[in-house]
Amino acid sequence: MSDAIVVKNVSKRFSWRESKFWRKKKHVQALKNVSFTVKAGEIFALLGPNGAGKSTMMNIIIGLLTPDKGEVFVLEKNMRKDRDVLGDINYTSADSTFHWVLNVNDIMKFAASVYNISSEKRKKRVEKFIKFFGLEKLKNTRYNWLSTGERMRLVFAKAMLNHPKIIIMDEPTIGLDPDMAHKLRDEIKRINKTFGTTILLTSHYMQEVEYLADRVAFINQGRIADIGTVKTLLKKSRKKNLEDYFIHMKERGMRAEDKGWRDVE
Amino acid sequence: MKISHVAAMVKRDILINIRMKWRLMEFIYFPLLTVLTWGFFSIYMQDYALQAGLVVLAVNIFYSFAHLAQSTTNSQMMEDVWSGSLKQVLVSGITEGEYIVSRVISTTIAAVLILGLMFGVGSFFGLTVIFQHGGLFALLALITLLSSIALSIIIVSMILMLGRSYGFLSYSILSLLFLLSAPFYPIDIFPPVMQVVAQAMPYTNVFSGIRSVIGAGTVADGILINGFIVAFAYIIVSIPLYYYAFSKARKTGQLVRMT
Q: What CA–CA distance (Å, rounded) separates B53 from B181?
């Protein structure tokens, strides 16, 4: 199995001034020497408490943030130098939004044009995914008139358009009703099995992660604290389920923080 | 730079421009009101000083054009920020270069169309000199357009570096430049320090050119050459600044906070 995403010794520190510009800068080490690999075709989950560094990691992987140190390779391309690879991957998140005056059809057509899908295939593919995600009746509905669930379905329809080799999903089912979330999880699994699409996701729903993920990395205080299959992690921590494991790991992280593990100046 | 990416973005911008009532106000309502207000003023001025009235009208038309050509690019970006769609645009593979070039193209299309409309309406108020000296006015419009494009790129760069709360720069900077560009009078009116500043302003030569065409029916070559030199200087500064701002925003996390 080749590697879809390789994260090598990535560190990221944020600096800011509170209110007055002459005040001394504050710093927080969001990521410190983070390394992990997502293999092609697997579903890999990045777990961790709020503020652990998951979103920072995701933003570095999709090229919105540059690491201070280290490199990220997506489909063997260095994200610092070659962002063309964005055409071969896709991204969904709970906070994915589109311009409010554009309708479902406009958003899908725009994405299809950006992903260089040939004009003959474009129409068919847009229609296919609009139908697949049950958005036919909403084709001409503007984005701001869609419900949360409909918006998420649109995000997923858009994410499938370019037949991506990797989909990065930040909290994919947040805000969805249980039925929709269940359908979406099945869909994620089906996409992964049918097309061999690599999926990197973050989630705060532990059952979701147990159901979906082949492997999990637990990130805390900006460092990878643990990595492995769900089975291995549970066995190692002697916990019954991922929720207990999460609490155990978070508490362990807090104890480490008391010892000055995280660098906050 | 992929043409398909730029074309997709331009098409998206045109769709948004057509669908947004606010944008229609910016494109039609305000420019038309400007021409009508100063058009009636120029009619009234016919009894006193015909040229003065026409100068005021023409300068206001060019100011509206400059404002549109600058602020549309900036408001398109701010709308992407406010709607949260900037992230989806950037992660779909649109590069920073494609992002700004497409915005400049869609803005130019809109601004030039509106300039034509303003000239058309202006002619009913006696501003026929625009058609008599079409070539000169076209050159002055080109200098204005280039300057506004450069200014819009500089403002986008500043917002990228300073953050979304500095979005007000989109609407405020041009008013200051309007004052410093000596719109209705020669720069000699200004105190010496302001004269130096005025010479570096992108629109000073344009306004000076307008006054000259309406007053004397011609523009000295020096005015046009200086106008192009200043406009290109702004363009030359704006492009590396934009790439630097994007790279800096990626490093500091400002880009993430804006998406």
A: 19
